[in-house]
Amino acid sequence: MWELKGWIKQQESNMLGLIETLVNIDSGSYIKEGIDKVGNVLSGEYAKIGFETEVHEQQKLGNNLLIRHPEAVNPEILLIAHMDTVFGEGTVAGRPFSREGDYAYGPGVIDMKASHATTLYALKALMESGSEAFKNVELVLNTDEEIGSIASRELIEQVAKTKKYALILEPAQNGHLVSERKGGGKYFLKVHGKSAHAGIEPENGINVNVGLISGGTSVNTIAPFAEAAIDVRIETWEDGDTVDSAIKEICSYSEIPGTRLELTGNITRPVWNLTAEAEALIAIITEEGQKNGLELLHEKSGGGSDANLTSFAGIPSIDGLGPVGADAHQESEYLYIPSLAERTLLLANVIERLSSK
Ligand SMILES: [Zn+2]
User: Fold this and answer.
1) C-alpha of residue 84 to centroid of ligand 1, in Å
2) Cα Rg for the chain, rounded, in angstroms?
3) Which helix (H) or strand (E) element contains residue 271?
4) Which long-range contacts (CB under 8 A, 24 or more apart) does 240-243 make?
5) Distance 145 CA to ligand 1 centre (A)
6) Ligand 1 center to residue 257 CA distance, Å?
7) Rounded Cα gap, residues 191 and 194, in angstroms
8) Tens digit of pLDDT for each residue in 34-46?
């Protein structure tokens, strides 16, 4: 294949420009307007290289996008990148995109606005090189990954079914690929009553985290209502059943007369375990990395992603193909800029390799 390395390196400032634009749009999972703005910027960029966007409209959440080249016939590779972040409205005003030497900062910069730049430029690089492999991909850009991909799950599964490979562009923590992830889900416990006892929180001990608690009307009023959001992580399907029935059991009655419990939610993310097919895919990706001096390792992550869904749909899936950085979901989140070119090249080479018969 034509030497892409130099061309990609030259695109670094364009990539950073796109990342700056995307970071500077508040696009928390519940900010439909912001996410749709991100979607418009991206579909505009894809239109410039001849790709077409199918908009899957949603009432409350951002619109999911399905993107492919009009000449793509039965593409085999699914690329997934989410457009939402965990940050609320107004975050950008407080700490917009910034750069210091080799590092870039801002809400969602590594999780995963930078991945959109590497994905777009990998496809551009393929076109630039005269490769036809860009016709072998279909992209899902979804809008609710940070809240469990509940609304985009159907689209992802439907598109995944027709593919041979799924490449998920979540960031590369320490530069590692991700080959397995825990499953999990979310529960919401509402307590209605005259007062709510703190002891009502479910405590079943298996990776359950009550991360968000709210309630009350004022400091000198006994709270008539309280709510807890509970995050669950599981290693096996059996753990999922255990946690699910334990939470339901604990919340099936209230020990405090006059209060009523209301529990919603469930296990939404299946566990993702490494399969032989995915191992073969890792071998290909590591080989392509080696050709350009990248020593790629792979690891199991505790955090779920859309790879859990594509793998569950039976498609060999590898994640962590995005650029390198760390501290996702935190203020200190950063992108390591030199990894932009590296990861763009890697993705282009992997797509080319998977497309050559
Ligand atoms: Zn992410």
Assistant:
1) 8
2) 21
3) none
4) 240/183, 240/185, 240/267, 240/271, 242/204, 242/206, 243/204, 243/206, 243/207, 243/208, 243/267
5) 7
6) 42
7) 10
8) 999 999 999 999 9
C-alpha of residue 154 to centroid of ligand 1, in Å: 18
Query: Quick check: 340 and 117 in contact, CB under 8 A?
Result: yes
The per-residue pLDDT for range 126-177, each reduced to its tens digit, is: 999 999 999 999 999 999 999 989 999 999 999 999 999 999 999 988 889 9
pLDDT over 70, % of the chain: 95
Q: Which residues pair with 272 in a beta bridge?
A: 181
Query: Which amino acid does the sequence have at 163?
Result: K
- The model's pTM: 0.87
Give, for 219, the enclosing helix (H) or strand (E): none
For residue 193, report the distance from its CA to the centre of ligand 1, in Å: 37
Residue 27, both tokens: 């696009």
List 173's β-bridge partners, or say none. Answer: 325
Alpha-carbon torsion, ordered 163, 165, 166, 171, to 10 deg: -160
DSSP character at residue 86: S
**Cα gap 188→211, rounded to integer Å:** 11
Cα 319 to ligand 1 centroid, rounded to whole Å: 10
CA of 306 to the centre of ligand 1 (A): 9
**Ligand 1 centroid distance, CA of 170 (Å):** 5
Separation of CA 165 and ligand 1 centre (Å): 19
What is the 255 CA–ligand 1 centroid distance (Å)?
39
